[in-house]
Amino acid sequence: MSKGAIQDRNLAAVGVDVALVRHFETPEEHLREELWRIWLRIEHEIRRRWELQALPPVQSEGGLGLWKPRELNGLFQQAHAEYAGAETGAADHGSQELLDAYLRHSALLETRIERTLARGGVLPLIELVRAFKLDARQRATLTLALAGEVDTNLPVALRYLANDPALRHVDGRLLSILVYDSVRSRSRLARDLSPRSPLVFYRLLELDESAARHDSVLYRRIRPAARLVPFLAGGDLELDPDLDGAARLVELPAPGLFPDDALEIATAAVGEHAVLLVVQGQRGIGKRTLLATAAAHAGKRLLVLDAPALAARGPGVTAVLHAAVRECKLLGAVPALANLDDLPGERSEVPGFLSALCALWPGTVGVTIHGDRLPPLRMRPVVHVQLAVPRLEARVELWQRCLPELPRDAAEALSARYAVTGGVIEMAARAAQATTGQREPPPGVLDLAVRQQLYGRLSRLGKQLETPYTLDDVISDDDTLAALREIVLAISERRRVREEWGFRGAAGISVLFSGSPGVGKTMSATVIANALSLSIYEIDLSQVMSKWIGETEKNLAEVFDAAEPGHVVLLFNEADSLFGKRTTDASSANDRYANLEVNYLLQRLERFGGLSILTTNLTKSIDLAFRRRFAYDVQFTFPSVDIRERLWRRAFPPRAAIQGILHRELAERFELSGGYIKVAVERAAFIAAGRQEPITMPTLIDTVERMYRERGKLSAMGRLE
């Protein structure tokens, strides 16, 4: 016999016309009827015990005095008026009459539930019961615990029934009276309140932790998770407060744009499979969007947990994980651990909370990683998806999805100029809208907004240099000038050579500038950036290098990822401190990790699609493996006398007040690089300005001789380096 037939028979047995039973219109209506069933059950039990004289006639209610049966009768009459529409002051009911009403209402309630679900209606309490596979008594336990949080009069009656004026929540004694009310069922009470019960395992119910473990389960206070009360009213998107700052539910306005093979792999992995779905790619590339899109294809949502935020919870992370698993069950979501490689400190193993999450959640667990290395994920089989920057056509569609009225040609121009991720496109569009107050900002503003998003990430690890000089301002030997011009041509024409002519090789170009201090290495780098109309960022190695294992590679990855699509020249000054010779005898852990950092840099230089310039004053300290990977190895020689003369002439601005300057004599007398010549002229200018006179030869000579002495030279002879 079907469940519906059984319900119809029960209704007929208690005198209810089955044809007149209607479905529930709202979740609130269903919750109201559940509360009325609980009131009938409690009143029946109290009146039955009064009839048997099994309850005291009066009871202390805190500081409110004594509760007598007359007051309890008033409480019951109020419930009858509120839930059943009875008149206040109606005659009291006997226990048998209440039992009949309880059975009739229960049969009616279950039939209305079945009819509501058959019509496609949503009843949150029943969805909760189904999601966690609760049986009838577990459902009754949960409903009773929730009822005390919804109806403030219920705890008064429960305190009276338990003969405990201090009672604030349901406990095991009340469950043994109202739910596990037979000898046979009472043996299940301890099981349903054990840590492995779905009620406790998923933190649907929280047991009083102040009680000792050996205390009887009858005296353990029980309260429902605060999350469940708004859920019963249909607030399914309100995450548990315990998850604030650590998790968020991802809702996609539109599916992400991804390669078919990546989306197929991710979609196939989402479900009941006990696997780790690891999505790897640079920041903003859409790792979480891919997981959310795959989850949506499987009819699920995505609950994203932030790994650094979980690590900050310390011992409290266990409660957060239990709450997260409960939310995934409630909302039909897939858990995903984001930014796994953003954890602070020295970490060579995955955090313990990932293993704990895998132990709690039987289905797919998503993981996002933006670094180049996969951590040792040994707790489950790994399904790995590597994401690259969206193709040109996808970038055009992303621009037009963020800005529907953006002209197609403007979207194509932005997409061709900036090979950026969907996250950068979205942030740039929002920033441009905020700065202009327009829904569709002009292309020029969007161009600036993209560069600001990209350069903002670079600014943390470096600074932007000015590019006031051109190739005509460079004073050097012919070989160096020819090399600089060739580098400019290489960047300008690389697309034609690679794509049209079919030459193979790295998309970007790496350059090494070596030579003595002050010979013009940094200036030459800015000259190249100027000739290419690119920005140039000098990377601060003190910010890049870290004592924590893996942090240096993480910082380098952030630099290259931000510079890759942004038309930026990367300048690493004095790079020998980071890119020195690798240790052949890696006897210590520090040596081994230093070698790993060098190897990582070699790989990123080869994959970097832009122009990277490394400078060094110590040519011999650069690892030979590095030198072989540089397309251009430019040696900046110390300037000859003729070049020094030109440098002296160029050092004086046209408006400078000078008198009797002999440029050739200065060049022959002092072996100075261009940088020192510039410093000497500026220092002499300050002295002359203070004396209210022009810059003269004696002032210049005194200044240069003082510079020699400051650097430990006994005389102003020889090369100053």
Structure description:
The longest helix is centred in the first third of the chain and has 25 residues, at 27-51. Residues 1-10 have low confidence and may be disordered. By secondary structure, the protein is an alpha/beta fold. The strands form 6 sheets. It has a 6-stranded mixed β-sheet with strand order 6-8-9-10-7-11, with helices on both faces. Strands 12-14-15-16-13-17 form a 6-stranded mixed β-sheet, sandwiched between helices. A 3-stranded antiparallel β-sheet has the order 3-5-4. A hairpin with a 5-residue loop joins strand 1 and strand 2. The protein is elongated, with a radius of gyration of 38 Å. The protein is built from 31 helices and 21 strands. Helix 22 (478-500) packs across helix 23, helix 28 (641-651) crosses helix 29 (663-669) and helix 28 packs parallel to helix 30. It folds into 5 domains: 3-226, no CATH class; 241-386, Rossmann fold (3-Layer(aba) Sandwich); 392-459; 471-636, Rossmann fold (3-Layer(aba) Sandwich); 641-720, Helicase, Ruva Protein, domain 3.
Salient structural properties:
721 residues; alpha/beta; Rossmann fold; 5 domains; 6-stranded mixed β-sheet
How much helix is in the residues?
Answer: 40-55%
The biggest beta sheet reads:
6 strands, mixed
Mean pLDDT: 83
Number of strands: 21
Radius of gyration: 38 Å
What form results from the Cα inertia axes? elongated
Q: With helices defined by DSSP (H or I, 4 residues minimum), what is the helix count?
A: 31
Number of domains: 5
User: Cα distance, first to last residue?
Assistant: 99 Å
Beta-strand percentage range: 5-15%
Structural class: alpha/beta
